[in-house]
Amino acid sequence: EKGGYDTFMEKEIHDQPHAVRDTLIGRTDARGDLALDELHIDEDELRAVTKIVIVACGTASYAGMVAKYAIEHWTRIPVEVELAHEFRYRDPVIDEHTLVVSISQSGETMDTLMAVRHAKELGAMTVSICNTHGSTIPRESDAVLYTHAGPEIAVASTKAFLAQITASYILGLYLAALRGTSYGQAAAEIMAELQAIPDKIEALLGTMDRVKEIAYYMADSRAVLFLGRHVGYPVAMEGALKLKELAYIHAEGFAAGELKHGPIALIEPGQPVFVIVPSPSSEHGLHGKVVSNIQEIRARGARTLVIAEEGDEDVVPFADVVIRVPRTSPLLAPLLTVVPLQVFALQLSTAKGLDVDQPRNLAKSVTVE
Ligand code: M6R
Fold this sequence. Notes:
By secondary structure, the protein is of the alpha/beta class. Helix content is 43%, strand content 15%.
């Protein structure tokens, strides 16, 4: 059942093109317009949404953070993302015009379920983005948008993460179309870019030898840092989480803009730092700002492992290692940039002789508080 791979995680990483492709299937009508009949929420109610709150835990919460950037940009609806276990014990400002979107692979995560119940009690509409048919969270939600990643067995989430991002983008574009924003009108173009992602992941997976090699010689690392900005920030945190879970190495993900506010003090000669570089086509000059960050940490001795778009030559002078990802539009980049980080954590865990699929102390679904 591991499809010829040594571990479920490796198989699931290679399933990712399918996971994204299958999650996109059936979400458009014959004219190519987004059609989410499966949501069963009245369109007028969705048009009247004034705020979206995304609740989730762990990797699913990072998918939620990625979604925030895209959904706000496309719909102009304010989006908050909150860890479900924090949300459930707060007194959040929520009403019947709030759409609470839970994200969960298993559909059984206790904290996320409790957050959904809390939201319902407060009168919000609830939508579940979930990978497991008939599980508790979608059953208790007003509506569900299933991800079609297929069963995920490895404790460390990989393909579910990509499918969650994909589904939340579909939801965002659908809401944008309902509200008639310019991005809603251009939804077909963005969908076409999404449709091109699976082949790009496939191509990227074919270039991972260098990443595997560096994982092997970094097996003794005591700490690894991850820097990202904009949608690359949640990717940095996801890269760090994968490394903690799988290789038991201290790892932190930071927003690159935060460096000078503290984390740069951690940089000493030899400190490995992954940097997820925004596309040169990103708005607000973010690419140049992150290239400057790489320069700053390199000057202090960091070993820079740079994930950058194909053709981005600006990073080369300051990178110890450049890991290339195919081009896509800036908001879709996490579907590609996270892949080398998953492979890195998997290989490092393997290099240390650890149990990749069943890391210590962890359960696949956390059904207790
Ligand atoms: O089943 P869920 O998506 O609700 O699970 C949420 C988290 O427990 C999960 O993503 C966890 O962080 C993974 N082990 C990450 O690899």
